[in-house]
Amino acid sequence: MRVVIITGLSGAGKSQAVKHMEDFGYYCVDNLPPILIPKFIELCNQTHGKIDKIALVIDIRGGLFFEDLYESLDNIEELGYQYEILFLDASDEVLVKRFKETRRSHPMSQEGSIGEGIVKERGKLKKLKKMSGHIIDTTRLLPYQLKEELKNIYLEGNESNNLMISILSFGFKHGIPLDADLVFDVRFLPNPYYIEELRDLTGNDEIVRDYVMNSQVSVTFSKKLLDLITFLIPQYIKEGKNQLVIAIGCTGGRHRSVTIGHLLYHQLKKNGNRVIINHRDSLLKERKKD
Fold first, then answer.
1. What positions does the entry give for GTP binding (predicted)?
2. Which helix (H) or strand (E) holds 131?
3. Same domain assignment for residues 127 and 189
4. Which of 119, 127, 255, 288 has the fewest CB atoms inside 10 Å of its own CB, making it the most exposed?
5. Residues 147, 32 share a domain
6. Looking at 125-240, which runs of residues are DSSP E strands?
């Protein structure tokens, strides 16, 4: 029987995760009192294989009951069952934004600020996060990307490291992303902006990518960039880093940065890394027209 404990920060996407797990054929229970976990597993085991995959959402909503979790996990092992912990995380800024959008109060700060609640919750879950076999940072994940991550781990059974690489293209004239770990300036590459038929296109268009990469400088840079990132990835994993944000910027964030971002994304994906890509400013011109 496969037992998955889903936990993590409030607002990090546990509700979405459990819906996806249900789609994958897992028997799911949200907010089960931890003390009941061993009994629930035994109950499922008595179905003689009819229920062989379960996912349980356990978090600080359980209040005082949450303190029973660690004892329950010990009991599970004593009974001879294996379990794995999935921890969902996100940046404080994104968590605050999500709570404000839903107009909900934080469960650990009903009368205080959302930020205070997040700090308290992080402290409460610190030990549990260290015990987790899989950590997914949903800061930049779209719903379908979270589903793909879960599908890769729990449906297809692929094991991977906990480092999520997020590639972000941007334009320097719109500001450098505040959460970037690494920033690369590609304004020295051939600029399609000065080609009239390419100006209104983006690096999402093949003709633009071909123009940018039709240069030895572009080819050499892309190879050296991949070499550097490939060298750094295991170092970050060794340090226990969960998310690496690689920001690639050009002037407007529409042509060169998008092109290099796409190239790096596909190369890292091919090498078996967990990677997503977002283009912050590539559609900025179109949005202003609307």
1. 59-62
2. helix 114-131
3. no
4. 288
5. yes
6. 134-137, 164-171, 182-185
Residues spanned by the domain of 247 = 164-289
How many CB atoms lie under 10 A from the CB of residue 35? 15
Which residues does the annotation place in the binding site for GTP? Answer: 59-62
Binding site listing: 8-15, 59-62
- Structurally, the chain folds into a number of domains equal to 2
- Whether 37 and 136 map to the same domain: the answer is yes
Binding positions for ATP are 8-15
Q: Are residues 147 and 170 in the same domain?
A: no
Distances (CA, A) of 48 to 1, 130, 132, 245: 10, 33, 28, 45
Residues 21 and 138 both lie in one domain: yes
44-53 pLDDT per residue, tens: 989 988 899 9
Return the pLDDT at 158: 54
- Give the integer Cα–Cα distance in Å for 8 and 162: 14
DSSP 194: G
pLDDT at 111 over 80: no
**pLDDT at residue 178 in the model:** 87
Q: What is the pLDDT of residues 136-176, one digit of tens each?
A: 999 988 888 899 889 888 876 555 567 889 999 999 999 99
d(CA 227, CA 223): 6
What does pTM read for this prediction? 0.71
